[in-house]
C-alpha cells in the first residue's frame, strides 16, 4: 500500500505550506506514539482522567425484546461523555511531547471542541477552537463549557457556517501558526497522518471491547456496529476486529430526513470518491466536484466526508455501511432510554437503531456489540423539538 | 521538459524588456458572468503576460476571505469548467497572454484529469496551479499533463526545505510560484529579509522563472527583493479593485 494510503483512499492533498508540520507530526506518530514513555503516560491518563476501561454492558431488557444478545461499549461513560476524549487526550499528550504550547481544533456540535478544551486545560496548553457561526448559535452550552475551561472559540462566518467550514478555517490558521500549534483534528479524516493517528488513539475502544467480550461471554461478537460520521468511533471499534474474519462489521450512516431531495450525511452509501480536507475518500458532492451541504438530526454525523480507512473497508468489503434515518434514530433514542436507563447520543442512537430495524434478519441468539459512542444529554432539546 | 512552454517565454519576454511579468488572477465568472470575459480581454490589452483563471471551488482552503467570497459568488452563478471552456473557445484567439488555471484538485479530478488535459490543450490553457496537489500526489498525473504540454506549476513557501525545492525543480516546471507569506491569499507579508533569502534559494535551485504571489498589492512591496523575482501574481487586491466597480485598466496602470 502507498504510504499514507488505505488502498486507493487517503493521501495528503494539502497546500505545500502544510507539508512540514504534517511531516513533523508523522515522525511523532512513528516514534513518540509507540515509545514506552508515551504508552505509560497514555495508560495513566486513561485510568486517572478519562475513566478507562469503560464498561461493556449486556442489555438484558433490550436483548429479551429483540431476540439476540446486545452488548454496549459504554464510551458515554468516558470523561466529557463521549469517545472524543480518547483522541484529544492522546493528541494533547503528543503535542506536549512535540514541544507545542497550543492546541487548535474545529468542532461541529461542540463535543470535540469540549474534549480538546478539556485535554488542553488538564495539560496546561492554550486552546483555540473554530466553530461554524451557525453551530455556535445552536450549541451555546458547549461554547460556554469550552470557554469555562479557558479555550478561545472563534465563530466561522464563511461558506455554510458549519463543520466543514470550521475545518477549512482551522487548516488556514494552522498554516500561519504551525511552529507552536498542534492541530488536534477531531475525527479519522484529513491528510496523512491524521486518519492513522486518530485510529491508533481510538483503537482502545475495540481492544477493550474484544477482551471484555472474551472475558464476559467466552466468545467474540458476531456483529460489531458503530455509527459513522467522520468515523472515528467506528474505526476505533472496528480495527482490532478486522483480522477476525468471522466478525461482521457494520457502519451506520445518517440518512437525514430520508427524502430524495433532502440533504443527508450518508457519505459512503450515497456519495462518490473525491478529495476534501486533504484526503481522497467518499464525499457528498455534485458531479462537478463541489461539496454539498449535509444534514443529520445528530450533529456529530453531519459531515459531507468520511475517514479514508472506512472507504477502504467498504471497497474491500471487509465492512458494510448502512443508512438509518433521523426518525428511526429518534425512536431508538427513546427505546434505549426507557428499556435500559441509558440515554444515548443521537449519533450512537443510529447504531442502536440499525440493530432494532434489522431484528428480523439478525440470527436469534447471536451477539451484537454496539459502540455507544456518547451520551445524549446534549441532544435533549433536539429530541423534544422532534416530537417523536 | 517545459522550457519551450509559452508561459516560460511570456515571463522571460517581460524580464528581457526590463520589467516584471504581470500575472493577474481572476475567478472565472467574476465580477459577473457577463463582465468576466471583458475583464480578461482588458487585462490582456493592458499588458498581462500570463492570466490565471480561477476555477471556483466550494472549499478553497489555501485562500483568504476575499477569494473565497468571490469563488462562491461565481459558483452561485453556475460557473463550471464547461462554461470556462465555452468562453475560451470564443475568446482565446483575442488573448495574447499565456493562460493558466488555478483551482483546487477535486473539480479537476471529477472532470477527469485526462479529459481536462485534452480540453486545456484545445482551449489554449498552458498550465495548472493546484494549491492542494503537492509533489507526491501530482506524480500519478505527470505523464498525461506532459502529453498535452500542460505545465504543472509548483507552489513553494518559506518553510519548503531545500530538498523539496530540488525535487520540484527536477520536474522542470514552466515557472515556480513562491508563496510570499506563511498564510493564505490576501495575508500581509512578514519579514522581507526571510523572504529575500528564500527567493534567492529558489532562484539558485530552479532553472525556470520565479513568480511571487499571495498578499502582493503594490510595487513598493517588491523593492528589496526585486532582483530575485521574475513575475508577480495578484489576486485579492485585483478582486477588491474590481469589486469596487473600478476597471482592470486602472489596476494595471499601478504596475
How would a textbook summarize the main sheet of chain A?
6 strands, mixed
What is the radius of gyration of chain B? 17 Å
CATH class of the largest domain in chain A: Alpha Beta
- Number of self-contained structural domains of chain A: 2
The percent of residues in helical segments of chain B reads: 40-55%
Summarize the structure.
The complex is a heterodimer of chains A (388) and B (255). By secondary structure, chain A is an alpha/beta fold.
Please explain how this structure is put together:
- The complex is a heterodimer of chains A (388) and B (255).
- Chain A is of the alpha/beta class and 388 residues long.
- Chain A folds into 2 domains: 153 residues, Rossmann fold; 216 residues, Rossmann fold (3-Layer(aba) Sandwich).
- Helices cover 43% and strands 18% of the residues of chain A.
- Chain A contains 16 helices and 14 strands.
- In chain A, strands 3-4-14-9-10-13 form a 6-stranded mixed beta sheet, sandwiched between helices.
- In chain A, a hairpin with a 2-residue loop joins strand 1 and strand 2.
- In chain A, helix 4 crosses helix 9 and helix 9 crosses helix 11.
- Chain A is globular and about 55 Å long.
- The model of chain A has no long low-confidence stretch (mean pLDDT 96).
- By secondary structure, chain B is α/β, with parallel strands linked by helices.
- Chain B has one domain: Aldolase class I (TIM Barrel), CATH 3.20.20.
- Chain B is built from 12 helices and 9 strands.
- A 9-stranded parallel beta sheet of chain B has the order 5-4-3-2-1-9-8-7-6.
- In chain B, strand 1, helix 2 and strand 2 form a beta-alpha-beta unit.
- The longest helix of chain B is centred in the last third of the chain and has 14 residues.
- The radius of gyration of chain B is 17 Å and the shape is globular.
- At the A-B interface, helix 8 and strand 11 of A face helix 3, helix 5 and strand 6 of B.
- Chain A: It comes from Desulfonatronospira thiodismutans ASO3-1.
- Chain A: Keywords: Amino-acid biosynthesis, Aromatic amino acid biosynthesis, Lyase, Pyridoxal phosphate, Tryptophan biosynthesis.
- Chain A: It holds the Pfam family PALP.
- Chain A: It catalyses: (1S,2R)-1-C-(indol-3-yl)glycerol 3-phosphate + L-serine = D-glyceraldehyde 3-phosphate + L-tryptophan + H2O.
- Chain A: GO terms for molecular function: tryptophan synthase activity.
- Chain B: GO terms for molecular function: tryptophan synthase activity.
Amino acid at each position: 500500500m502507498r504510504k499514507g494510503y488505505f488502498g486507493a483512499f487517503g493521501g495528503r492533498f494539502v497546500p505545500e505550506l502544510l507539508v512540514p508540520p504534517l511531516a513533523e507530526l508523522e515522525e511523532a506518530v512513528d516514534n513518540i506514539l509507540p515509545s514506552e514513555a508515551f504508552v505509560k503516560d497514555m495508560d495513566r491518563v486513561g485510568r486517572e482522567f478519562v475513566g478507562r476501561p469503560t464498561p461493556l454492558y449486556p442489555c438484558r431488557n433490550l436483548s429479551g425484546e429483540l431476540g439476540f444478545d446486545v452488548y454496549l461499549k459504554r464510551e458515554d461513560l468516558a470523561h466529557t461523555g463521549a469517545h472524543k476524549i480518547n483522541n484529544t487526550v492522546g493528541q494533547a499528550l503528543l503535542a506536549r511531547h512535540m514541544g507545542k504550547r497550543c492546541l487548535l481544533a474545529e468542532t461541529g456540535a461542540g463535543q470535540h471542541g469540549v474534549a480538546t478544551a478539556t485535554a488542553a486545560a488538564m495539560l496546561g496548553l492554550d486552546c483555540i477552537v473554530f466553530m461554524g457561526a451557525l453551530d455556535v448559535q445552536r450549541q451555546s452550552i458547549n461554547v460556554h463549557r469550552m470557554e469555562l475551561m479557558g479555550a478561545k472559540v472563534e465563530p466561522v462566518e464563511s461558506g455554510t457556517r458549519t463543520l466543514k467550514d470550521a475545518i477549512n478555517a482551522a487548516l488556514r490558521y494552522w498554516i500561519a501558526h504551525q511552529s507552536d500549534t498542534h492541530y488536534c483534528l477531531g475525527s479519522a479524516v484529513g491528510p496523512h497522518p491524521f486518519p492513522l493517528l486518530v485510529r491508533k488513539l481510538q483503537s482502545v475502544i475495540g481492544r477493550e471491547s474484544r477482551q471484555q467480550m472474551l472475558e464476559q461471554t467466552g466468545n467474540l461478537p458476531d456483529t460489531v456496529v458503530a455509527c459513522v460520521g467522520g468515523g472515528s468511533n467506528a474505526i476505533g471499534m472496528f480495527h482490532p476486529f478486522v483480522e477476525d474474519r468471522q466478525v461482521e462489521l457494520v457502519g451506520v450512516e445518517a440518512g437525514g430526513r430520508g427524502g430524495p431531495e433532502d440533504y443527508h450525511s450518508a457519505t459512503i452509501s450515497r456519495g462518490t470518491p473525491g478529495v476534501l480536507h486533504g484526503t481522497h475518500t467518499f464525499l457528498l458532492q455534485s458531479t462537478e466536484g463541489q461539496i454539498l451541504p449535509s444534514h443529520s438530526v445528530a450533529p456529530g454525523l453531519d459531515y459531507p466526508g468520511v475517514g479514508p480507512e472506512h472507504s477502504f473497508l467498504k471497497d474491500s468489503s471487509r465492512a458494510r455501511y448502512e443508512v438509518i434515518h433521523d426518525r428511526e434514530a429518534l425512536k431508538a433514542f427513546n427505546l434505549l432510554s426507557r428499556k435500559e436507563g441509558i440515554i444515548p447520543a443521537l449519533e450512537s442512537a443510529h447504531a442502536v437503531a440499525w440493530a432494532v430495524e434489522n431484528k428480523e434478519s439478525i440470527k436469534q441468539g447471536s451477539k451484537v456489540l454496539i459502540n455507544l459512542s456518547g451520551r445524549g444529554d446534549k441532544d435533549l432539546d433536539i429530541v423534544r423539538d422532534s416530537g417523536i | 521538459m517545459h522550457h519551450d512552454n509559452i508561459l516560460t517565454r511570456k515571463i522571460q519576454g517581460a524580464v528581457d524588456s526590463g520589467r516584471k511579468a504581470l500575472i493577474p488572477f481572476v475567478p472565472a465568472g467574476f465580477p459577473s458572468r457577463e463582465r468576466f470575459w471583458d475583464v480578461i480581454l482588458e487585462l490582456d490589452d493592458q499588458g498581462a503576460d500570463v492570466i490565471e483563471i480561477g476555477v471556483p471551488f466550494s472549499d478553497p482552503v489555501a485562500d483568504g476571505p476575499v477569494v473565497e467570497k468571490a469563488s462562491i459568488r461565481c459558483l452561485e452563478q453556475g460557473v463550471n469548467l464547461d462554461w470556462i471552456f465555452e468562453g475560451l473557445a470564443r475568446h482565446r484567439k483575442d488573448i495574447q497572454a499565456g493562460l493558466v488555471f488555478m483551482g483546487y484538485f477535486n473539480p479537476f479530478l471529477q472532470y477527469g484529469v485526462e479529459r481536462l488535459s485534452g480540453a486545456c490543450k484545445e482551449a489554449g490553457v498552458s498550465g495548472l496551479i493546484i494549491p492542494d496537489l503537492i509533489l507526491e500526489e501530482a506524480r500519478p498525473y505527470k505523464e498525461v499533463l506532459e502529453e498535452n504540454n500542460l505545465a504543472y506549476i509548483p507552489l513553494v513557501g518559506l518553510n519548503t526545505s531545500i530538498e523539496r525545492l530540488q525535487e520540484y525543480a527536477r520536474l522542470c516546471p514552466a515557472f515556480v510560484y513562491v508563496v510570499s507569506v506563511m498564510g493564505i491569499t490576501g495575508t500581509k507579508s512578514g519579514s522581507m529579509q526571510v523572504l529575500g533569502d528564500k527567493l534567492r534559494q529558489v532562484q539558485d535551485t530552479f532553472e525556470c522563472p520565479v513568480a511571487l504571489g499571495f498578499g502582493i498589492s503594490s510595487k513598493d512591496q517588491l523593492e528589496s527583493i526585486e532582483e530575485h523575482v521574475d513575475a508577480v501574481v495578484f489576486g485579492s487586491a485585483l478582486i477588491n479593485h474590481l469589486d469596487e466597480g473600478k476597471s482592470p485598466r486602472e489596476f494595471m496602470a499601478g504596475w
